[in-house]
Recover the amino acids of this structure.
């Protein structure tokens, strides 16, 4: 089993456990399933959904790091795909905007998360919200399907980010766009953090450099790339002390390393890079 496969299995295991827990328990640990990080980490990362129309407390596990639906330019009738949909939190907010003529497809790696999301959708009586189990490195959706793709604090957990953004490009309709909230870095995390698998599953060690993240989006073929929101994440000392000595904490704080939650928007061009024709014509 290679390292990427091990990391995927770790994420699936941890988030399957999280699916059976209340929001209050998830917020008490950065890894969700274990009390590894102190009480404030998800409160530091998460934004408040309560004021958004369509918000359903039963679907909010407190695991996000942004509000991608606020920036996603959703409109009535849109087909929206939510990558890493969890218990359905962002999907239900998006459904409120797209209405009965729209379609929401949530995709999640964890079968218990899918079951919880489906139960929530059934309780809400939402027939045009669907949840599919699958790996977002190989999205279980046909090409050119979505008007909009959203995701909230999920891509940092995926080892192969090039593959994910390639899949996002494939699944979006020509002229479609995404709005994704995620964790990125400026500067290097302590090497010790990179060796702690628990931190990969629930905190920040899967995050990559901000500029690298944006470059991957550009390399995948997207245009009009725009950071819609950039929020600093300051990890409290009680969390740092689980992994670093006092001297190491001091060195980390003076290193200039910055951890941020960003929400990024980008568009799939309405015609391909050859500029040979309009989408849908025979030469494309």
């Amino acid at each position: 089993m290679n390292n990427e496969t091990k990391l995927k299995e770790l994420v699936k295991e941890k988030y399957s456990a999280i699916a059976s827990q209340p929001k209050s328990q998830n917020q008490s640990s950065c890894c969700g399933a274990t009390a590894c990080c102190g009480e404030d980490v998800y409160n530091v990362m998460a934004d408040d959904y309560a004021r958004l129309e369509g918000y359903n407390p039963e679907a909010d596990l407190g695991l996000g790091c942004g509000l991608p639906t606020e920036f996603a330019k959703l409109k009535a009738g849109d087909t929206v795909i939510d990558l890493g949909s969890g218990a359905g939190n962002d999907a239900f907010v998006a459904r409120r905007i797209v209405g009965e003529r729209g379609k929401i497809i949530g995709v999640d790696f964890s079968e218990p998360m899918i079951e919880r999301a489906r139960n929530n959708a059934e309780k809400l009586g939402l027939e045009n919200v669907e949840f599919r189990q699958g790996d977002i490195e190989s999205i279980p959706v046909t090409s050119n399907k979505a008007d909009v793709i959203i995701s909230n604090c999920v891509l940092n957990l995926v080892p192969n980010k090039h593959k994910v953004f390639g899949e996002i490009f494939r699944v979006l309709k020509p002229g479609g766009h995404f709005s994704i909230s995620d964790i990125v870095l400026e500067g290097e995390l302590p090497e010790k953090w990179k060796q702690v698998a628990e931190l990969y599953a629930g905190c920040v060690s899967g995050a990559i450099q901000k500029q690298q993240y944006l470059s991957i989006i550009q390399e995948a073929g997207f245009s009009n790339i725009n950071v819609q929101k950039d929020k600093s994440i300051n990890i409290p000392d009680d969390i740092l002390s689980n992994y670093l000595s006092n001297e190491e904490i001091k060195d980390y704080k003076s290193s200039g390393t910055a951890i941020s939650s960003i929400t990024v928007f980008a568009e799939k061009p309405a015609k391909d890079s050859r500029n040979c024709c309009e989408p849908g014509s025979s030469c494309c």
Summary: The first strand starts at residue 79 and ends at 83.
